Structure formats: structure tokens, C-alpha cells
Amino acid sequence: MSRPLAVVLLSGGMDSCVTAAMAAQTHQLALLHVNYGQRTEARELRAFREIAAYFKAQLILEVDIPHFRRIGGSSLVDPSLEVEDYGQVGEGIPSTYVPFRNGLLLAVATTWAEVVGAEAIFVGAVYTDAPGYPDCRPEFYEAFQRAIDLGTRPETRIRIVTPVIHWTKEQIVRKGIELGAPFHLTWSCYRSEDIACGLCDSCHRRREAFRAAGVPDPIPYANPDPSEA
Amino acid sequence: MSRPLAVVLLSGGMDSCVTAAMAAQTHQLALLHVNYGQRTEARELRAFREIAAYFKAQLILEVDIPHFRRIGGSSLVDPSLEVEDYGQVGEGIPSTYVPFRNGLLLAVATTWAEVVGAEAIFVGAVYTDAPGYPDCRPEFYEAFQRAIDLGTRPETRIRIVTPVIHWTKEQIVRKGIELGAPFHLTWSCYRSEDIACGLCDSCHRRREAFRAAGVPDPIPYANPDPSEA
User: Fold this and answer.
1) Contact (Cβ atoms closer than 8 angstroms) between residue B145 and residue B113
2) Residue A1 above 70 pLDDT?
3) Contacts of B137 (CB under 8 A, 6+ apart)
4) Is B155 helix (H, G, I), strand (E, B) or coil?
């Protein structure tokens, strides 16, 4: 019997790449990438395509949602705002929070999952060891699950699966190594599209995770790791 | 003191037009239209623009979400499927149901509402007197409300308002007449973009509503009303 199908939201970063590797243990993959006007959109799309080829995905969908760039509200989509260095990120919600972005990504994933008959949506959201974006909270995913149950056909069954939501970034690296996840194809930097800056919050947390896991990060950085100075 | 801002999902049909008229009683309007590849997309967009001009909306946003046409799953977005006449619509969910469409529209509305500081999202969903799309159920909106509460900034407060969800189409027509809603600018037909067919489920229910309310429908139809034969 063939494996059931799962939609995986794959940004091209390390968390979603490891999530895809976990989904691949039990499911056929329907990989979904959304271009939402983020600064490193082109580089993330390249990472998505290379990772999708690596996993030999059953289905692939790329969706453009350009309105974020027009409405702004986040340094990740508004070029006039600055993406802070790791050390400059203060308390509260970082400037890189994109309003209800994960809600929108889940909604897109649900439309596709219902059409192709996927029984799950895998999301690589991380809450415990992450900057505290509200749309990464476990309770948010529980609420969205209920919206899916009520807002789709009665016979449709789609589970949201967030396998790494309570993990540390170090645990995610270790799981990825165990499963042979293609970290060399992933892209995490919030700022740059050629060589990862190594200084933004996302680069910093990635480097810290590899260091803690005791394995080398296979991608190059433009700047030395400030934590190793 | 100026009125608070409300995002209104405005398709260009009569239900959302009356909903906008109701929102205008208490709020400044941020009118949102989503082109999702529906058959009558261009005609609905024209209706949206004319209605937005009529209401002198404070803010206007048009968003393109073209992936539905690629993934299919509904006669409303897939030209190879037929939109049935009223009499041909059977039991269950009609072919015009677009998977989780309202979930996606709400997610887009939430992203915008959070950025512009709107305190409400008005949606002209009708459940009681409508074809039974799952994403028009009151419980679906309650669940989505919770997803919004949990998936946005702690200080963000956005209420979903569905003022006509339990109304008959006749009640909606009467309320629109009372508030001076511009029915002559609205578009309801699922099939045609020049003259409304008058035979699809959406045309049929609109004509029936005007007849029941005892007022003339200001738009012309290509076919006589079968109910009057």
C-alpha cells in the first residue's frame, strides 16, 4: 500500500528541511513554498527547489502572495526597515514578525491539502527556542486545526503536524544529521541572498545550534561568528 | 473622535455589499478584494471598484491569489468543470465550493487588519439560506476568531463580524434597500461577465430574494426567470 500524502510547508530553512525529512519517514511529500515578498525571496525559492529535488517530492507547488510587500508591517518584507543584528533584538516580538504570516501559509496549505487529498500538513514552526512570534505558539496551531476541521468538507481529514515545535535548535540539527537532511541546501539568513551574513538573529541561532550539536554547518558565512571571538 | 477602522471582505456580490453598508454605519472602511481565479474575476473586480468608490472607502486593497486556478478542485475556478443550473444542484456541497477559500480570505484580511490597526473584519458569509459551504458555518468563524486571537500580537484585537450569516437572502435585500446599498453595482453571476445568466444557483437565489422582498432587481439578465414561467 502506498504511503499517505502530506503537504509540507518548506521555506528552505533548516527547521522546515528537517520537518520534511521527518515527514518523508511516513508520508509521500507534497512540498509547498510561498513567496511572500520576504527580502531573501529568490534565495529561499532556490533552496526550496533544491531541497524538493533532493527529496524527490511527489508534488510541488509554488505560490506567490505579494501583498505583504505592499502593506508592510515587518522588517522582513519592508526594505525601509532594518533587520537587527542578533544582539540588537530586544524583548517582545521582533521586527521580523510578519503579521499572521503562518495563518496565511496554513490557509494556503489547507486549500491544496483538501484538493490533493493530503491527510496532514507538516509545519516546521519552533516556539520554545525561538523569538516568540505569536503565530508559532502551539495553541495557535490547535485553534487553526479546529478552523480546518470546520471549514472543509465533512469527509476531509487534515491534521496539522508540528514535530519540532517544542525542540531546541540543537535538537533539530541532531535530528537532521540522523535523517540525512540536506543542510547544505538550506538558507536561513534574513538579510542576504549571496553569502549568509552570519549576524542576523536567524544566522546567529543557526550557528549556535550547529556549535551546540558539535557538527560543522556546511554553509559559508560572510562574517566570523561573534560568539567565537 | 474618528470612527474605528474595519476591514470588509468585498467580493462585489450583494451579500458583501450590504455587509459593507452595515459596516459603514459604525466604522471607516478598509475594503479588501481577492482575485482568486474565479470565472467572473474581471467582472467582480469591476464591481468591487465601483462599490468602493460609492462608499468612499478609507483604504482599498486588491490581492491576487492565482494558485486556485492551478490546483483546481472547484467549478468556480476550473473552466473544465461545469457550473450547474439552479435545478441541477443536488444534495451535499455544490461543485462551486472552493476548498477553504473563506479561510484563505480571512487569513489575508487578518494580515492587513493587523498592519493597519483595524479592529474588525466584516464578512458577508450567509449560512442559513445558502448552499451549505462548510466555510460559511458560524462555528468555522468562531474557530478562526480563536486562531486570530492566538496568532497575532498580544495587543492586537480583531473581531470577526458576520452580520448576515443567519439571514435569508430576502432579509439581506431589505436591509440593503433600507441602507441605500448600491445593488446596481453588484455582480452575483457565477458564469458570465457581460450579462448575468439568470440561471446559475447564484443568479437564481438573488432573483428569488428580490422577488420575495417585493423590489425590482436593478441589473438585467440574459434569460427570463424560470420561476416566473
Assistant:
1) no
2) no
3) A150, A151, B127
4) coil
- Chain B residues interacting with chain A (CB cutoff of 8 angstroms): 61, 63-68, 70-73, 93, 97-104, 106-108, 110-112, 114-116, 134-135, 137, 139-140, 143-144, 146-154
CA–CA distance, B198 with B190 (Å, rounded to integer): 10
Q: Is the pLDDT of residue B87 over 90?
A: no
Smallest Cβ distance to A150: which of B110, B139, B149?
A: B139
Q: Where along chain A do its domains lie?
A: 5-228
For every residue of chain A, which 3-state class applies, written as one string? CCCCEEEEECCCCHHHHHHHHHHCCCCEEEEEEEECCCCCHHHHHHHHHHHHHHCCCCEEEEEECCHHHHHCCCCCCCCCCCCCEHHHCCCCCCCCCCCCHHHHHHHHHHHHHHHHCCCEEEECCCCCCCCCCHHHCHHHHHHHHHHHHHHCCCCCCCEEECCCCCCCHHHHHHHHHHHCCCHHHCCCCCCCCCCECCCEHHHHHHHHHHHHHCCCCCCCECCCCHHHC
Q: Which range has the worst mean pLDDT, A94-98, A182-186, B88-92?
A: B88-92
Answer yes or no: do A147 and B140 touch at CB < 8 A: yes
Q: Name the residue facing A100 among B68, B110, B143 (closest C-beta).
A: B110
Lowest mean pLDDT of A113-127, B69-83, B133-147, B194-208, name the range.
Answer: B69-83
Residue in the block written with cell 514552526: A125
Domain A5-228 matching CATH 3.90.400.10: the answer reads: no
Rounded CA separation A229/A169 (Å): 21
Give CA–CA dist A220/B4, Å, rounded. 49
- Would you state the pLDDT for residue A228? 72
Across A171-198, average pLDDT: 96
- Residue B153 — φ and ψ, nearest 5°? -55, 150
Residue A63 main-chain phi, psi, to 5 deg: -125, 135
Look at B152 and A143 and tell me if their CB atoms are within 8 Å: no
Q: Please determine, for residue B72, whether its predicted confidence score (pLDDT) is greater than 90.
A: no
Q: Using the structure block, give the residue that is written with the C-alpha cell 497575532.
A: B152
Grid coordinates belonging to A125: 514552526
State yes or no: pLDDT of B53 exceeds 70.
Answer: yes
Please report where in the chains the cell 493587523 appears, as a residue. Answer: B114
CA atoms of B12 and B23, how far apart (whole Å): 15
- State the cell numbers at B138: 458560524
Cα–Cα distance, B17 to B163 (Å, whole number): 12
- The answer, as to whether pTM is greater than 0.90, is yes
Average pLDDT, chain B: 92
Rounded to 5 degrees, φ, ψ at B189 are -65, 135
